[in-house]
Amino acid sequence: MLLISYMFAAALELVMTVKNFQLGNLSYAWSFGFLLFLSVASIPLETSEMGKMVRAEFKSLGVDTAKYDLISNLGRSFAYILIIVNVFDYIAGLITAYSITFIMLVLAIFKYVRAEK
């Protein structure tokens, strides 16, 4: 499920990046492109042995990083869908996508710090 969520988020990020390049919104295109890079870079990490070992190690510490990544991917995808159906404009979608990513990262770090104590 996590791998599929990465691929779905990456596909929507690619659409947002290309669409904004076509519209001449280069700053938005680069912003979506950065999120696309994060998703695309995560896919090989997710499927590699090293990635599986890291996830297992975090899980043994009580931090299910896959949960945070899945919520982040689904949240970002939902924000992109809201852009596509014209509920959000591009900037609101970007702010939402980056906020969700940041919040999930902070929650995972917070959980890790608490697990280490």
Describe the protein's architecture and organization.
α2 packs across α3. This protein has helices at 2-23, 26-47, 49-60, 65-84, 90-116. The mean pLDDT is 93. The radius of gyration is 15 Å and the shape is elongated. It has 117 residues and is mostly helical. The protein contains 5 helices and no strands.
Termini separation: 31 Å
Low-confidence stretches: none
- What is the helical fraction, as a range of percent? over 70%
Task: Assess the beta-strand content as a share of residues.
Answer: under 5%
Instruction: Specify the structural class.
Output: mainly alpha
According to DSSP, the number of beta strands is 0
The backbone outline, from C-alpha atoms, is elongated
| pLDDT averaged residue by residue | 93
Compute the gyration radius: what is it? 15 Å
Number of helices: 5
Major pleated sheet? none
Order of helices and strands: HHHHH
Describe the SSE topology.
Layout: H1 2-23, H2 26-47, H3 49-60, H4 65-84, H5 90-116
Summary keywords:
mainly alpha
Summary of the model, kept short:
The protein has 117 residues and is an all-alpha fold.
